[in-house]
Amino acid sequence: MGEIVLEMKNIVKDFPGVRALDQVNFQARAGEVLALMGENGAGKSTLMKVLSGVWPYPTYEGDIYLRGELKRFYSTKDAEASGVAIIYQELNLIPELTVAENIFLDRQITNTLGVINWSKLFAETQRLLDELHIEDFRPTDKVRDLTVGKQQMVEIAKALSKKADVLVFDEPTSALTDKEVEALFEIIRKLKRQGVCMSYISHKMEELQQIADRVVVLRDGRTIGEVTPMAEITLDQLISRMVGRDVKDMFPKGKCQRGEKILEVRNFEIDNPALPGQKKIKNASFCAYQGEILGISGLMGSGRTELVSGIFGAPPGPARGEIYLNNQPVHFRSPRDAIKKGIGLVTEDRKRIGLILGQSIIQNMMISSLETVTNLMGVINEAKERSLGQNYVNQLAIKTPGLDVKIDTLSGGNQQKVILAKWLNTKPKVLILDEPTRGIDVGAKVEIYNLLNRLVEEGVTVIIISSELPEVMGISDRILVMCEGEIVAELTRNEATKELIMAYATGSRRKGG
Amino acid sequence: MATTAPNNETAQNFLQGEGMQTLLKFLKDNGTLVALVVLMLIFSFWDESFFTPRNLTNLARQTTIVGIIAVGMTLVIIINGIDLSVGSIVGLAAIVVTMLMQAGVNPWVAIMITLFLTGVLIGIWNGFWIAHYNIPPFIITLGMMTIARGVALTLSDGGSVPVTDPIFAEIGGGFLSITISMIVVLVILGFVFFSQFRELKQKQQYGVAVRRQDVITTTVVTLLAGGLTLYAFTYRGIPYPVVIFAIIAFVGTFVLQNTKFGRRIYAMGGNEEAARLSGINIYRMKIGIYCIITSLSALAGIILASRLNGASPNLGNMFELDAISAVIIGGTSFSGGVGTIIGTVIGAFIISVLNNGMSLLEVPTFYQLIIKGLIIILAVWFDVLSKKKHG
C-alpha cells in the first residue's frame, strides 16, 4: 500500500447555526481510491470544498497535510497548485470551445506575443489523451458534441494536465450510461497504478465495491468509525454507519384515519431531454389517500423532484402517464391547471423557484390565489388581502415586522411559512412538499410538522419528499422509496426502518427483495 | 460619548442627524424628482423663456408622445423584456391612420382600425414569438422595428401624407378650455389629497409606522406639482394629448398597483419560474403585455400625426431609445420586477425638459445627444449605488 498522501485532521466547519463538519479525520494513500459515503447533507461536499479551497483557509478549523506538509489553501488556485483537483457533478467545461482549449483553459500554449500556438496545443492535448488511452474523441472536437461521459474524461484530463495527484470525484457517474461508467473505471484503475490518490464520493454501493479500496463514512459532519478496507465491511455495516441508530422523537404524529383515494398516478414517465432514449422517471404508479401523509424518500438525483413536478404540470421533459383526481382522469398542461384542480407544490429550491425575492410578504403570499382577494374586474381589495394575510401570519406564527417587508429579510423558516400560507390560500386538496424543512431551524421544523398534521386532519392529502430519513419516517404514514427514476419500494410506517429505506434507495436491494 | 455630553448638545446633534437623515432619505427615494426640479430651476435661471406658461405647455405636450410609449415600456421592462419596435410602429400607425382618412374613412373608424392593425395585431405577433418560442424579445422586436418601418415606407411610397380633417387635427393640437382645465386640476389635487389621507388612515389601522416627514414631503410635492400645472395651463388650457397621457398614466399606475394583472407582472419580473409554478399563465401575460405596448405606440403615432397635421413614414425614429431612457431614468430596474409608472412619467419629463431647455439655450444637437447619453448612464449608476447600500 502506498504512502499517505492526504491527511485531514480535526476539520471543523461552521455555517450560521449549523456545524457542517465536526472533527473530521481521515488519511488517503497514493494509488488508492478512498470512498466517501454518507447521507445527503452528511457533509461530504463541504469536506471536499474545504480540501479544494472553495472554503478558504481561515473559514474552517483543522489542518490539511499533503505528503506530510501542512497546507493552507486561500483559494482554489492554491489547491490546484498543490495538486488537488475535483471533478464535480456539474461539469465546468465551456461547450463552445474545443477539448484542447478546455483542458488548457487558463494557460493556453502561446508564443511571446500571446498568440495561441494551435499545433502545439493540439499536440500536447493528444499526448495527454494518449496517456489516458482515450481514443473516443480528438483534441479538436467541440465539447458541446461530446456525451456527458466523455466530457467527464475531458475534466479528468484537465485535472491531470495540471499535475494533480489528489483527485476527488464527486458522484461522477450520476449522469453516465453503463458503458461510460466502465470506461471511467478503466481510467481510474490506470490512475491507481500511476500512484494517484483518489477520493470518490458516491451513493452507489455496486460501484464502490468495484472501484474503491477503502471507505470512510460521514454522518452529521462526523467521521463514523475508522477508514475501513472495502473488502472487510458488509453493506449492512456500511448502511448502519450511514444512518446511525438513534431516532429522536421530534415528530408529533396526529391520529388520523385513512380515507378515500384522492390522487392516483399510473405509469407515469418523463423523458430525459438531455439524453435521448433515457428516462428521468420510469413507469411510476402510486396512490395518495385523504387523511394520510405520504412520504417519498430516495437519494438526491433519484427522480423525486422530477416526479412531483411532473404531476404538478411542470415536468423537466416530455411526460406520459395517467393521473386521476377523485377517480376522474385529469391532464395538467401547466402548473396553473394543477392549481385550479386543487394541487399545490412547495418547491425544493426555495430561493430559485419558490420565492419572488425583492417583493413583499403579502405579494408572495397571494400570488397563487389572487382570485380570493379581487373583484370581478381583477381589482385587489386591499383590506381583504391584508386581513387574510394577517390571519396567516398569526395562524402560522410567522415572525415578521409587517406584511410589506421584503421576503428576503425573513429567516428560512419564516420564508417557508409564507410559502405554506401561499399554498394554503389556494385551498388545495393535495399539497406536495419537496424538502420543506431544508435549511430551517429545528423549532420551525416542528411547527411545520404540526401544521402538516393539522392539514391532514382537515382532509388535505399531504405528500412530502424528504432526504432526512428520521423526518420522512417520523411524519409519514406510508413511504415510497425511489432509486434511479423508479419507485422501488412502498413501505408502511411500521415496516420502514432506516436500513431498509437506505438499502432500497442505494439500489443494493431491489423491488420485491 | 453621547451619554457624557450636555443635554442640549445631544438634542442638537440628534436633530441635525435626524434632519440629515430625512433629507438623505428623501434624496434617495426621490432622486429623479429632485433631478427634474433641479434641471427646471437651472433652465429657468438660464433662460427666461423657459419658465413661461407657453413653454411649459409645449413641454408637456412634447412629453406625451414618448411618455405614452414609456408607460407601456415600463410594463415590458418590469417583466425583463424590451420592445425596440415602438418607434417604427409610431411611424407605421401615423401612415396607416392618415392614409385611411385620405381614402375617405371616418376619422374615428380610421383610428380604431389603426389601433387594431398596428397595435393589437403586431403586439400579438411579437408576443407570440417571444412567449411561444422563447426567442429573446430584443431579437423579435428588432426585426419588427425594421419590418414596421419598411411597411410604412412601402405604403406611403416614401412620401408624406397630409391630414385634411379638422376634427382629427384637434386630437393632437386642441386644448381643454382654461376654465375646465382649472376645475380638472383642482379636482385631481383634491382626489390626490383624499387618497393620501385614506392611505394614511389605512396604514395607521394596519399598524404601519408613518413618519411625519414623509407626510410633509408628499404634501409639499403634491402642492408644488399642482401649482406648476395651474400656472402652465394658464396659457391655453390643457392640451388634449396631455389629458390622454394623464389618463393612460393613471390607469397604468392603478393597474400595476391594484389589480391581479399588475401583481402578476411584478411577480413575473421578480422570478418568472416561481411565477409559473405559482400558476401564472406566462404565455398569455407576455402576449398581453406586448399588445399593450404596441397599442400605446400606435396611439402615440396617431396623436403625433394629428399634431403634425400629416404623417411621414420616418416619424418616431429613435423613439424606442427615448422611451427606454425614460423608464430607466424613472427607476425601473433592468433586471426586472421593480418599477413604477410615476417614475417613468418623471423620467419622460426629465428627457423632454433636457430637450426643450437645451434647444432654448441653443445647445447644438450633437452635444444634446452626448448629454442625454451621459444622463442615462448617471441614472443607472445611481440606481446601482442605491441598491448596493441596501445590501
Mean model confidence by pLDDT of chain A? 87
State the major sheet of chain B. Answer: 2 strands, antiparallel
What is the correct CATH architecture of the largest domain in chain A? 3-Layer(aba) Sandwich
**Quaternary state of the chains:** heterodimer
Spatial strand arrangement across the major sheet of chain B = 1-2
Residue share in β-strands of chain B: under 5%
Helix tally of chain A?
17
Q: What can be said about the biggest beta sheet of chain A?
A: 6 strands, mixed
The two chains with the largest interface, and their residue counts, are: A-B, 38 and 25 residues
The number of helical segments of chain B is: 16
Low-confidence stretches of chain A: none
Q: Judging by the overall fold, what is the CATH architecture of the largest domain in chain B?
A: Orthogonal Bundle
Q: Roughly what percent helix of chain B?
A: over 70%
Helix content of chain A: 25-40%
Number of domains of chain B: 2
Strand segment count of chain B = 2
Give the full name of the CATH homologous superfamily of the largest domain in chain A.
P-loop containing nucleotide triphosphate hydrolases
* Dominant shape of chain B: globular
The rounded Rg of chain A comes to 25 Å
Please give the domain count of chain A.
Answer: 3
Q: Label the structural class of chain B.
A: mainly alpha
Structure in words:
The complex is a heterodimer of chains A (513) and B (391). Chain A is of the alpha/beta class. Chain A has three domains: 240 residues, Rossmann fold, CATH 3.40.50.300; 155 residues, P-loop containing nucleotide triphosphate hydrolases (Rossmann fold, 3-Layer(aba) Sandwich); 72 residues, no CATH class. Helices cover 32% and strands 26% of the residues of chain A. In chain A, the strands form four sheets. In chain A, strands 6-7-8-3-9-10 form a six-stranded mixed sheet, with helices on both faces. Chain A has a six-stranded mixed sheet with strand order 16-17-18-13-19-20, sandwiched between helices. Chain A is globular, with a radius of gyration of 25 Å. The model of chain A has no long low-confidence stretch (mean pLDDT 87). Chain B has 391 residues and is an all-alpha fold. Chain B has two domains: 297 residues, ABC transporter involved in vitamin B12 uptake, BtuC; 64 residues. Chain B has 16 helices and two strands. Chain B has a two-stranded antiparallel ribbon. In chain B, helix 14 crosses helix 15. The longest helix of chain B has 28 residues. Chain B is globular and about 65 Å long. The N terminus of chain B is likely disordered. Classes of the chains: A alpha/beta (513), B mainly alpha (391). The interface between A and B is medium-sized, with 38 and 25 residues.
